[in-house]
């Protein structure tokens, strides 16, 4: 029964992670689309933080019951929400689309009606030859891959152990501390998203992650007493003959690097790939294209989580984290070279950009 529950929960989370960003991008006014789109990630990290806190006082059975409350509220409240105007137009329901637009925006001012000549045909493989399809698809897949290759799951996995090495009295505070940092900086990103722009925040986020991952790798390098220990899997156990105080001080380097990484990730590479995924695809391929991007994200998360320990055995802990720093450098270069700025643009203008119009 537990496995069945986990399976159904995973299925529901997968659907929500695909549909929620797309729905928000299609109903949001262009000037606040970044704010609303970033709220998806903000609500995710807020939910994680609340789960950490609730886990202190509730046993797992009651925690599972508490987890039923948000989806129940979502189910009830979504019954009051209309379909997106763009979807209704593809179904040739113009009056219903305008009614939904007035419900969502209050008026039709600023609305740019999308062309609907080919939307009803659905996705076809021949469409991949069009720059308006293959360019955003490559960008979307790459953003999702770089998000996971940044090493965020590895950092989260070792968070509590890092705090233990820094001699925190209650190492379980590590999860709450990490959660608070995520929520605060994701909220900051949401508030400035439509002013700073996606490219700037992605670049800044990537640079911060490069420095923090490099420092994290340096911590592991300094705690290794010799080459024979480079593949030691007990990562954070002091293994050299240096005084314990030295290791505590170095552990604070790891704590600082971890907190800096989480803050940098939350400002850019946490929310923005999901936001851009919902913005860059033309309407007639959005379902398939966003599905491919979400699949890429979850597959890369599984792959990195599963193989990271093997990479550490091969490269050593410091080599593994320096490798993630290299991926962060590539993510910055990719952003500066290929990712367009979408702030303030309508979805139709973004599609026209990729078509070269």
TrEMBL record:
Q: Which GO terms describe its molecular function?
A: dehydroascorbic acid transmembrane transporter activity
Single Gene Ontology BP term?
D-glucose transmembrane transport
Q: Which UniProt keywords apply?
A: Cell membrane, Glycoprotein, Membrane, Sugar transport, Transmembrane, Transmembrane helix, Transport
Which family does the entry's similarity section mention?
Belongs to the major facilitator superfamily. Sugar transporter (TC 2.A.1.1) family. Glucose transporter subfamily.
What membrane topology does the UniProt entry give?
A: Multi-pass membrane protein
TM stretches of this protein: 6-24, 31-54, 60-81, 137-159, 171-193, 200-220, 250-269, 281-300, 320-339
Using the record's annotation, list all stretches that form the Major facilitator superfamily (MFS) profile domain: 1-343
Please give the catalytic activity noted in the UniProt record. Answer: D-glucose(out) = D-glucose(in); alpha,alpha-trehalose(in) = alpha,alpha-trehalose(out); D-fructose(out) = D-fructose(in); L-dehydroascorbate(out) = L-dehydroascorbate(in)
- Which organism was this protein described from? Cricetulus griseus (Chinese hamster)
Q: What does this protein do?
A: Insulin-regulated facilitative hexose transporter that mediates the transport of glucose and fructose. Facilitates hepatic influx of dietary trehalose, which in turn inhibits glucose and fructose influx triggering a starvation signal and hepatic autophagy through activation of AMPK and ULK1. Also able to mediate the transport of dehydroascorbate.
Give the signal peptide as a residue range, or say none if absent: none
InterPro entries associated with the record: MFS_dom (IPR020846), MFS_sugar_transport-like (IPR005828), MFS_trans_sf (IPR036259), MFS_Trehalose_Transporter (IPR050549), Sugar/inositol_transpt (IPR003663), Sugar_transporter_CS (IPR005829)
What Pfam family is a match, any one?
A: Sugar_tr
What is the annotated localization of this protein?
Cell membrane; Cytoplasmic vesicle membrane
State the name under which the record lists this protein. Solute carrier family 2, facilitated glucose transporter member 8
Q: Name one GO cellular component term.
A: plasma membrane
């Amino acid at each position: 029964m537990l496995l069945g529950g986990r399976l159904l929960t995973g299925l529901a989370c997968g659907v929500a992670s695909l549909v929620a960003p797309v729905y928000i991008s299609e109903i949001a006014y262009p000037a606040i689309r970044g704010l609303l789109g970033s709220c998806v990630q903000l609500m995710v990290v807020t939910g994680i933080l609340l789960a950490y806190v609730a886990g202190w006082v509730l046993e797992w059975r009651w925690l599972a019951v508490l987890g039923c409350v948000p989806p129940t509220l979502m189910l009830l409240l979504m019954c009051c929400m209309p379909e997106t105007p763009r979807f209704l137009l593809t179904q040739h329901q113009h009056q219903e689309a305008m009614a939904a637009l007035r419900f969502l925006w209050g008026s039709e001012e600023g609305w740019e009606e999308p062309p609907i000549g080919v939307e009803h045909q659905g996705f076809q493989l021949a469409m991949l030859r069009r720059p308006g399809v293959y360019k955003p698809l490559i960008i979307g897949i790459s953003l999702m891959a770089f998000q996971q290759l940044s090493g965020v799951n590895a950092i989260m996995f070792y968070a509590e152990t890092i705090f233990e090495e820094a001699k925190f009295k209650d190492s379980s505070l590590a999860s709450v501390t990490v959660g608070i940092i995520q929520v605060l900086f994701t909220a900051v990103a949401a508030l400035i998203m439509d002013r700073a722009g996606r490219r700037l925040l992605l670049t800044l986020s990537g640079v911060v992650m490069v420095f923090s991952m490099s420092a994290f790798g340096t911590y592991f390098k300094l705690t290794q007493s010799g080459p024979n220990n480079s593949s030691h899997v007990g990562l954070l156990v002091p293994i050299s003959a240096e005084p314990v105080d030295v290791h505590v001080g170095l552990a604070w380097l790891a704590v600082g690097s971890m907190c800096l990484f989480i803050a940098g990730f939350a400002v850019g590479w946490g929310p923005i790939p999901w936001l851009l995924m919902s913005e860059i695809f033309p309407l007639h391929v959005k379902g398939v294209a966003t599905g491919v991007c979400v699949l890429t994200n979850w597959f890369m998360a599984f792959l990195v989580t599963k193989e990271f320990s093997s990479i550490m055995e091969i490269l050593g802990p410091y080599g593994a984290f320096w490798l993630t720093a290299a991926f962060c450098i590539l993510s910055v270069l990719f952003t500066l070279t290929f990712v367009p700025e979408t702030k303030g643009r309508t979805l139709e203008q973004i599609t026209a950009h990729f078509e070269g119009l």
